[in-house]
Every structure is written in structure tokens, then in C-alpha cells.
Design goal:
Helix content is about 80%, strand content about 0%. It is mainly alpha-helical.
Length: about 425
């Protein structure tokens, strides 16, 4: 009888969840200060600027995190080699962004002048953190999960103290936080002896291309709605929708904590994915149910009466949150086994449906239409990935991925045979 693959390092998942939950509470307090200080219209302006920074960084390579985790976790690339490459590439991207800004006329004034610096910093920090994920350096990853929101909160408090809170100053604080992450990640890796220089891995370029395309399609699936809301509606509506999506995505800390541990470990060995999916699904469902139940009084209490419409937007968004929580885990499992194309296909198909559906619904239903379109496409993406996963794991069934068992809550150990 074969040995059952254990749940990957449950203590690391538990620590990751606790770190993410603590970071969520700290970040929530910072977001309260930011949203109350900016108001819905100012929050909408900030959301569009952040969307631009993230989109440009993704286009220049921050979407390669999955390949870096896969390459380092499977021993196919040296972490020190990737460190040098990541810093050099980020510096080159900074120069290219400023060159493009100097050659073009649109978007070169005002707050957009600091975008190139933010793009380079976000790119470098995301790539360096992916290296540490691949090395399974979970202690450092969990520390950084906590440090970033603490620094952000300190910066926001200073802005409030000097009464200079604005979209531009918030972006500067975010840049400082990213710079700190780059410094700490570089110093952490620099203390260790350099890894031996490995030969160029065969087939990694194809994996990298698929992961990159999957990241772009996922970004389109996650954030096209915000761009479309900003096109059709007022900045205040953008601000309300941005806060609603911010809150709706918080239950994903459960699936993200699992993925942080799952990806590098699944790249090197078997994992009991049925148990992982079941626990992720029910924990995410419970978190979303609790959020939906208290949103009507919690949102005005935290953010003020101006943000009261956020509570009913959450009711449209949370079904998609539950669906995509499972989809994140399955996509990571498939990519860790060398099949990132499924994540790309799911993201591409969902984005292809989400964009026209959002365009159709926003003029009639406003931000609620955008939220409904998101939930529909997230559900379809999850269904697609479940089907793909079941085809690769013929011994697993739909109930095996969703129906909770009493044994799932027991401390997990490898079980052999007598």
C-alpha cells in the first residue's frame, strides 16, 4: 500500500496564517486612516495610480514570481544568481520608464512622475521575495509579511500627524516600504555562502513564458473591473469599489498562506491536495460568511458613513472570493508540478468573459454590476481548474476536494503501511 502524501508542513501553514492575519489587522487599521483621510474620491484616485504601478511592474516581470519559486524550489537555479539578475533588471526597468516618460507627453506630470520609481521598487521586492519563497525560508517570509504593514501604518500615522495625507504621499510611503523589503531581502541572502553556479536549466524558458502569461491574464481578471469602473463612473464610485474589493479579498489570506508553503514543497514532492483544498474551501467560506454577516454595521463604523454602500457591494463580491480561494490553491499545485498553462488558460478565459460582461453590466447596475461580473467569472475559473486538476489526479473526486472530513483537523503526519 502506498504512502499517503501529507499536508505540507502544517505548522508553516499555521504560522503563515497567523502572520497574515496579524498583518491584515495592522493593514486594516492603516486602510481606515487612509480611507477616512482621502474620502471616496481621493481613494479612487489612489486606486487608479496603484493599478497603474502594479500593471506596469507586472508587464516588466513581477509576474515571474511563480517561475522563480519553481526554479529555486526544485534546485534548477541559484538564488544568488537570481538576486543579481533581479536587481539589475529592476534598475534597467527604472531607466526605461523614465526614458518612456521623457519621450512621451501623456501621463508625465503630477503624481505620475513618481510612478517609474514605484514600478522598479515593486518589481524588485516581488522578485526577491519569490527567491526566499523558493528557498522555503518561511521564517523570513513571515517576518516580512508583518514588517510591511507595520511600516505602512507608521508612515500613514506620520502623514496624519503632519496633515499631509494625499494620494501622492501615500504612494511615497508605499515606495519606502518596498525599498525596505528590498534591502532586508538582499541582506538576508547576502549573509549566506553563494550557491554553486548551476547549468542553464532545460525547458525553464517555456515554463517562465506560461507563468508570465498566466500572471497577465490573472491581473486582467482581477483588476480589469476597477479600470472599467474608473472609465464609466465617478472617482467616488471608484473609491467605493476599491474599498469593497480590498475587503472582499481579505479572506484570501487563508489560501495565500497555504500557497506560500504549498508551491515550493509541491515542486519537490507529493502533497495531499484533497485535504488542502477541503480545509481551504471551508475556512474561506466561514470567513466570507462572517464578513457578509457584519458588513452592514462594520463598514460604516470603520470607514465612516460615506462608505456605507460598500457593505452591499461585498454581498456580490464574496461568492467569487470563496471560489477563487480554492482556484488559487489548485493553480499553485498544477504550476508546481510543471503545468502553469492551466492557470493561464483559466485567467485568459475569465478575463475574456469578465471584460465584456462588466462593460454590459456597469451602465445598468453601476458598481454592483462590476461586482456580479467578478463573482461569475471567478466561479467559472475555479470550475475550470477543478476539472483540470481532476484529470491530472484521477484518484480524486469533486467531493474529495470539497467535502470536509473529521480527519482533516487532526495533526497531519505521513502515514505508511505496516
Amino acid at each position: 500500500m502506498a504512502t499517503e502524501a501529507p499536508l505540507p508542513k502544517f505548522r508553516w501553514i499555521r504560522r503563515g496564517f497567523l502572520a497574515s492575519a496579524t498583518a491584515l489587522l495592522i493593514g486594516l487599521f492603516a486602510s481606515i486612516l487612509v480611507n477616512r483621510g482621502l474620502g471616496p474620491a481621493g481613494r479612487g484616485t489612489l486606486a487608479i495610480l496603484q493599478l497603474g504601478v502594479t500593471g506596469i511592474a507586472l508587464a516588466f516581470g513581477s509576474g515571474m514570481q511563480g517561475t522563480i519559486v519553481y526554479a529555486v524550489g526544485s534546485g534548477r537555479l541559484s538564488p544568488h544568481r537570481l538576486l543579481s539578475w533581479s536587481l539589475s533588471w529592476s534598475a534597467l526597468v527604472l531607466g526605461l520608464c523614465y526614458l518612456a516618460r521623457s519621450l512621451g507627453s501623456g501621463g508625465s506630470e503630477g503624481l505620475w512622475r513618481i510612478v517609474p520609481i514605484l514600478v522598479a521598487m515593486e518589481l524588485a521586492s516581488s522578485l526577491l521575495m519569490a527567491i526566499h519563497h523558493g528557498r522555503s525560508d518561511f521564517n523570513f517570509v513571515h517576518v516580512m509579511i508583518l514588517i510591511s504593514p507595520v511600516l505602512m501604518l507608521c508612515g500613514v500615522l506620520l502623514l496624519h500627524l503632519f496633515a499631509v495625507i494625499a494620494p501622492g504621499t501615500i504612494l511615497l510611503v508605499q515606495g519606502a516600504v518596498a525599498g525596505t523589503a528590498i534591502l532586508l531581502a538582499t541582506l538576508r541572502l547576502g549573509k549566506e555562502a553563494p550557491s554553486p553556479r548551476l547549468p542553464p536549466p532545460a525547458g525553464l524558458a517555456g515554463h517562465a513564458l506560461l507563468v508570465y502569461l498566466a500572471s497577465l491574464s490573472a491581473f486582467a481578471m482581477y483588476r480589469a473591473d476597477l479600470a472599467l469602473v474608473s472609465h464609466f463612473l465617478r472617482p467616488a464610485d471608484v473609491g467605493l469599489y476599491a474599498v469593497a474589493t480590498f475587503l472582499a479579498e481579505k479572506p484570501w489570506l487563508l489560501s495565500d498562506a497555504v500557497v506560500q508553503v504549498l508551491f515550493p514543497l509541491a515542486a519537490g514532492g507529493p502533497v495531499d491536495m484533497g485535504r488542502v483544498c477541503r480545509m481551504t474551501f471551508w475556512a474561506t467560506l466561514a470567513a466570507c460568511g462572517a464578513l457578509a454577516a457584519c458588513a452592514a454595521w462594520l463598514v460604516p463604523l470603520l470607514y465612516g458613513s460615506a462608505y456605507a454602500p460598500v457593505s452591499w457591494l461585498l454581498l456580490w463580491l464574496l461568492p467569487g472570493t470563496v471560489s477563487l480561494g480554492v482556484a488559487k490553491v489548485l493553480a499553485a499545485a498544477l504550476a508546481a508540478k510543471g503545468s502553469p498553462s492551466h492557470g493561464f488558460q483559466a485567467g485568459l478565459a475569465s478575463a475574456a468573459l469578465n471584460i465584456p460582461l462588466t462593460i454590459l453590466l456597469i451602465p445598468r447596475f453601476g458598481t454592483a454590476g462590476a461586482a456580479l461580473a467578478c463573482s461569475v467569472t471567478y466561479l467559472l475559473a475555479a470550475g475550470f481548474l477543478v476539472v483540470r486538476f481532476l484529470r491530472q489526479e484521477p484518484g480524486t473526486s469533486w467531493p474529495g476536494l470539497l467535502a470536509l472530513r473529521v480527519s482533516d483537523w487532526n495533526r497531519t503526519r505521513p502515514r505508511g503501511t505496516a
